[in-house]
Amino acid sequence: MRKILSLLFFVTSFNSVVCGAASSQESLEISELNNSYVLKVPVSRLVMIIPKDGLSPAKNTGGAADSPRYFYLEDKTSSLIISGWFEPEQAFSGMKKFWQAETEAWKRKGILNPQNVSFVKIGGWDAITYDMPIASGSNPHIRAHWLQAGTWIDIHLSIISSRPRQEAGAQLQSLLKAIQVKDKK
């Protein structure tokens, strides 16, 4: 019963954001601990831990960045970006539908088609790896999803690199494997 009430509160709280301003229970909190960033939304039972490794919280505005549960970390030196959201698990429609909606939105905006698209498992994450065409170098991306305890974590990793796409993509996969998702204690 407690789990059901907890889930109901979580979903109700997330839904209330759509209708009005987010309360502190629905807003993402980022703190630092042992050379890592700890990300959590109080209403969620999960916490995500991302190694700092040159990353710093940065500002990204407009669109999805307006969500109170959005995060954006970047390493300007290596052109690495990690961004994403904490959302209620019920908002996730599955990998195939998610990807279809994502690529259709890109087409409407005139964004080039992704290349080398693969649906894979990376650590505990369900992921989509792909490359975006650029004039020189490589631009690999990973969109990954974690579903647990009524929460959906959507994370996007990308890097612009002079290295070959396989090497830069392996760096992103290694970083994703190092990101931990745990139940709050």
The unreliable regions are: 1-21
Helical fraction equals 10-25%
Can you tell me the overall shape?
globular
CATH architectural designation: 3-Layer(aba) Sandwich
Strand content: 35-45%
Largest sheet: 7 strands, antiparallel
CATH class: Alpha Beta
Radius of gyration: 17 Å
Backbone structural class: alpha+beta
Q: N- to C-terminal separation?
A: 19 Å
* Count of beta strands: 11
The total of helices stands at 3
Element-by-element helix/strand order: HEEEEEEHEEEEHE
| CATH topology grouping | Protein Transport Mog1p, Chain A
- Tally of individual domains: 1
State mean pLDDT (0 to 100 scale): 86
Instruction: Give the strand line-up of the largest sheet.
Output: 4-5-6-10-9-8-7
Provide an overview of this structure.
Helix content is 25%, strand content 38%. It has a seven-stranded antiparallel sheet with strand order 4-5-6-10-9-8-7. It contains three helices and eleven strands; from the N terminus they run αββββββαββββαβ. The two termini are 19 Å apart. The protein has a single domain, classed as Protein Transport Mog1p, Chain A (3-Layer(aba) Sandwich), CATH 3.40.1000. It has 185 residues and is α+β, with helices and mostly antiparallel strands. Residues 1-21 have low confidence and may be disordered. The chain has helices spanning 2-19, 95-108, 165-178, and strands spanning 29-33, 36-40, 46-51, 56-57, 70-75, 80-88, 115-122, 125-131, 140-148, 151-159, 180-183. Strand 8 (125-131) and strand 9 form a beta hairpin.
